Protein: Serine hydrolase domain-containing protein
Organism: Torulaspora delbrueckii
Amino acid sequence: MTVTVPRLLCLHGFLQNAKVFSEKSSGIRKLLKKSNVQCDYIDGPVILDRKDLPFEMDDEKWQACLDTEVNKAWFYHSDMSSELNLDDTIKYVADHIRENGPYDGIVGFSQGAAVAAIVTNKITELVPSHPEFKVSLLISSYSFTEPDPAHEGQLRVTEKFQNAFTPKSDSKTKMLFIYGAGDQAVPATRAQYLANIYKQALQDPEQVKEFEHPGGHMVPNKKDIIRPVVDQINEALAV
């Protein structure tokens, strides 16, 4: 008899790769392994040149990025959310799931979390034979926003991506959010904004759990922070 091991698909951040994200999330990964939950890490399809970076980087650091093959991403950075194009990336992830799935859940960090949120919302459309995820863990996550013309000083999801970031109200996927109080790259308010989209849209807002840590733009590995998260994942996977 074949025993099916629960599996999570893991999407790294900007200027990372599967290997680095596996190392950075080792605390969560090792705790999950004790519950016999497997984490599958894949590389993003975008190969970055130095001109694609939204910040300056010296020759030595850039060469180190090339040497370690972390010049990968899920989409090219843009200050204008409406200019982002994720069509190829969403297809790339959907094709991977179709060929290597099914997956019980998805994990994403930063850029990977934005992609993971969209895939979570659209999985049954992207891969019609695939069931809903049981759990979605979004770390330092965000949606694609722009100033709301109807409410001065407020944001809304960019019109182009409003459908992508709209979850089904009857979704049963447990949504878990981890974010850092000291995150300068993706301020906690951006993760909270995305979490609120789910709280407002889902029939059961208790499906949404938030975990704040005192650090910055990182995957926390301290057991007191990640153990409650892993408990939630195990509960969703019934392991």
